[in-house]
Design brief:
Strand content of chain A: under 5%
Largest interface: A-B, 29 and 17 residues
Shape of chain A: globular
Radius of gyration of chain A: 17 Å
Helix content of chain A: 55-70%
Largest sheet of chain B: none
Structural class of chain B: mainly alpha
Structural class of chain A: mainly alpha
Number of strands of chain A: 0
Strand content of chain B: under 5%
Distance between the termini of chain B: 45 Å
Number of strands of chain B: 0
Oligomer: heterodimer
Order of helices and strands of chain A: HHHHHHHH
Shape of chain B: rod-shaped
Number of helices of chain A: 8
Distance between the termini of chain A: 8 Å
């Protein structure tokens, strides 16, 4: 998933105002940031034929990354720790249904947990967009609703409107094949 | 992954993250104390 990762960070921010948004945004993408680094040095090949991301995206890896990253904010209190931990861990949950390869339990275990919906996700669905796009759009809208509901209580309407419009725009941009994610 | 591909991937994360961060910054005088 792509845009839903940003929306997850916003949704968590809406419920945990003390958590810094920059940390939630980085946290929500930490597995991908690690994947970019490992892929660049050849440990996690990014090619479709031999795609491998068990070190950066397995359940155990993401839980460890979440704990390490959230621990850096432990001084700000338990609610902030939990919010940032959830932001990182949300990456595993959002990638679970459709991913280039099923998500692993842990590196080197050979045990895979994720749903194998890549073939379904790649098929054209309603109005010509692939099923994965519609799934991401649905998840994005749910997360944005959570964010907007909480942010409205906090009197942040202009920021909500701008963020929702921006993320829906990003989701629409991914309709173009040249925008890879 | 080539260096160019890695930079593109980083921009795909970094640019939207920066936009969302600045859009959601508390307005001057509304920071929590």
């Amino acid at each position: 998933m792509y845009a839903p990762h940003f929306a997850a960070a916003l949704a968590i921010k809406g419920r945990a105002r003390e958590a810094p948004l920059w940390a939630l945004l980085i946290g929500a993408f930490i597995p991908d940031l690690l994947w970019i680094a490992l892929s660049r040095i050849g440990i996690e090949p990014a090619q479709t034929s031999n795609f491998f991301d068990d070190w950066s995206h397995s359940l155990v890896s993401v839980a460890i990354l979440a704990t390490l990253f959230a621990s850096a904010f432990l001084r700000r209190g338990k609610p902030v720790f939990i919010a940032i931990w959830l932001a990182v861990f949300s990456h595993f949950l959002l990638d679970f249904p459709v991913h280039p390869k099923r998500l692993a339990l842990a590196p080197l275990t050979g045990i895979y947990l994720g749903w194998d919906l890549l073939a379904w996700g790649s098929r054209p669905g309603w109005l010509g967009a692939i099923n994965d796009w519609w799934l991401q759009a649905a998840v994005l809208l749910v997360l944005l609703l959570v964010y907007a509901t909480a942010a409205r209580r906090n009197n942040l309407q202009p920021a909500v409107a701008a963020s929702v419009t921006f993320l829906i725009g990003i989701q629409l941009l991914t309709l173009f094949p040249c925008i890879g994610y | 992954m080539t260096t160019v591909e890695a930079i593109v991937e980083l921009l795909l994360f970094g640019v939207p993250a920066l936009v969302l961060f600045f859009v959601n910054r508390p307005a001057r005088g509304q920071e929590r104390h």
